[in-house]
Amino acid sequence: MPGAMNPAVDTSSERTPSQLPRRLRILVADDERDTVLTLMELLREEGHETRGVYKGTDVMTAMEAFDPDAVLLDISMPGMSGWEVARAIRAAHGDKRPLLIAISGVYKLAADQILGLIAGFNYNLAKPYDPGVLLTLLSRAE
Hints:
The protein is α/β, with parallel strands linked by helices. It contains 5 helices and 5 strands. The protein has a single domain (23-131), classed as Response regulator (Rossmann fold).
């Protein structure tokens, strides 16, 4: 994302949304409001359509209304964790589920990768995340 963080950088050579390989619908679920808003802003700047929710219990309803191509899930949400939400998505959608990316501020690489596979996550991403890595992972959504 050249120039996205530094307004003094020439952004005339940046890609416009119409030049993106594909516009995705991305659902962001995190109990931290700032995280949801920051992710949504980043993704919209890249030309994607976004929706945000702050509770794990709201994800399935949002999925029905929005039909996302990808879901970014905080694994440590109160009420219904990202692990539980991912299992519910996997049970409801099977192999046709959207790309699922776990996001976490408490990242234990080996444990999270194993639990992520069991729950149905495609990828795990630690906070603070590198926007370039996130966008690369999202480019793998079918």
